[in-house]
């Protein structure tokens, strides 16, 4: 348990105490200098120096289908072929001391963590510094349509009901930024004709784009990206379990099924592929922009059988979220208070003693909150 508690403490300090984040992680998107100007046009496929292919749609860069890339992410994918993880960066320079324990964050990372805890996948990204959230602060864009608000709302409830992931409704919070550090990390649910999201907390205000009139599972999937999950069908062991029917996939969409080449620092929740994951596409799609024949599968299992796209979180989706998140109650002080139900990473519920011991550990030995009056009102609404 201790191996990932460090990140929760750090992120509490980032989100509610100091709200520090690097300006390099702002949501500006870059034009890669290695790409010829002729390729810089809407909906163009761009092959980066790493060999990875991204799709440029307007000012956005999309990777593996629906993953939005920030400037730093695009640079990393261009140079290395994957999104660089925070433990590979000199994060000591901007994090300093933990405001709760007053100890060096680097020292706590070494003491309370191991290398396996720094990156994860189910297939997921890194629950590392400034990439996971303590609570996912969110807002609805002012013009977000009622149908999109409804599925975003239901998706939030689904994640909270089944996992330790918690969301902070910031729609009525006037303070949007820190006078020194800029915009607070926040997800903005936004109207679009495409579904996409950044992977993990990118810093500042980041969008989850949603199409109109669709099933809530689409929003559950995009939130999965925002908290740190990649696609299951892009795992580096994918070809051991799945056949991709490229002959039925149109060229502009074939790179959506590229394998993530990275083989180190990956922490899968199972040895194989989770065909029940919310993060895997189904065998079929009705999108005729993507496939030639919607009656033929895009993907099959090795035995030729097919699967339907999941509409809910799978066991392994929950395990991933429960391993790297804690159900924190928002407060206006520095105390880290946990909800009564805290899931372990095997999806069982902690006993009261386990929960209080953990809460005490998070608060330098104080297992009892100083005052319940310091809790913030946090109600989700459509």
Automatic annotation (TrEMBL):
Q: Where is this region: Disordered?
A: 361-382
Keywords on record: Hydrolase, Metal-binding, Metalloprotease, Protease, Zinc
Domain Peptidase M12A intervals: 117-328
Active site feature: 222
> What PROSITE patterns does its record include?
ASTACIN (PS51864), PROKAR_LIPOPROTEIN (PS51257)
Gene Ontology BP term (one): proteolysis
**Which residues take part in binding Zn(2+)?**
221, 225, 231
Looking up SUPFAM superfamilies in the UniProt record yields: Metalloproteases ('zincins'), catalytic domain (SSF55486)
Please list the GO terms describing molecular function.
metalloendopeptidase activity; zinc ion binding
InterPro entries linked to this entry = MetalloPept_cat_dom_sf, Peptidase_M12A, Peptidase_Metallo
The record's free-text note on cofactor binding? Binds 1 zinc ion per subunit.
So which cofactors does this thing need?
Zn(2+)
Q: Which top-rank group of organisms is this from? A: Bacteria
This protein's name = M12 family metallopeptidase
Origin species: Capnocytophaga ochracea
């Amino acid at each position: 348990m201790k191996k990932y508690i460090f990140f929760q403490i750090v992120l509490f300090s980032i989100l509610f105490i100091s709200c520090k984040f690097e300006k390099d992680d702002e949501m500006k998107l870059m034009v890669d200098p290695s790409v010829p100007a002729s390729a810089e046009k809407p909906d163009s496929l761009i092959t980066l120096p790493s060999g990875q292919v991204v799709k440029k749609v307007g000012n956005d860069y999309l990777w593996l289908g629906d993953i939005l890339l920030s400037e730093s992410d695009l640079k990393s994918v261009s140079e290395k072929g994957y999104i660089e993880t925070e433990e590979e960066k000199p994060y000591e320079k901007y994090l300093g001391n933990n405001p709760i324990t007053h100890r060096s964050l680097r020292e706590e990372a070494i003491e309370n963590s191991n290398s396996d805890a720094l990156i994860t996948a189910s297939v997921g990204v890194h629950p590392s510094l400034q990439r996971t959230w303590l609570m996912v602060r969110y807002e609805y864009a002012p013009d977000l349509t009622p149908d999109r608000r409804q599925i975003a709302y239901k998706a939030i409830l689904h994640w909270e009901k089944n996992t330790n992931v918690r969301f902070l409704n910031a729609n009525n919070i006037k303070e949007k930024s820190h006078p020194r550090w800029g915009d607070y990390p926040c997800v903005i649910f936004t109207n679009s004709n495409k579904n996409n999201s950044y992977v993990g907390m990118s810093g500042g205000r980041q969008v989850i784009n949603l199409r109109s009139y669709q099933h809530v599972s689409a929003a559950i999937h995009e939130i999965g990206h925002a908290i740190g999950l990649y696609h299951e069908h892009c795992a580096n062991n994918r070809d051991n379990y799945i056949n991709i029917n490229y002959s039925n996939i149109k060229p502009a969409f074939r790179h959506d099924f590229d394998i993530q080449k990275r083989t180190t620092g990956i922490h899968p929740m199972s040895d194989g592929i989770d065909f029940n994951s919310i993060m895997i596409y189904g065998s079929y799609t009705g999108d005729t922009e993507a496939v030639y024949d919607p009656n033929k599968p895009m993907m099959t299992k090795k035995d030729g059988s097919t699967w339907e796209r999941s509409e809910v979180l799978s066991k392994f989706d929950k395990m991933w979220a429960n391993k790297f998140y804690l159900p924190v109650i928002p407060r206006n002080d520095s105390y880290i208070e946990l909800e009564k139900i805290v899931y372990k990473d095997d999806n069982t519920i902690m006993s009261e003693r386990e929960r209080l011991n953990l809460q005490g550990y998070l608060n330098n030995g104080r297992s009892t909150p100083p005052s319940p009056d310091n809790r913030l009102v946090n109600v989700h609404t459509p």
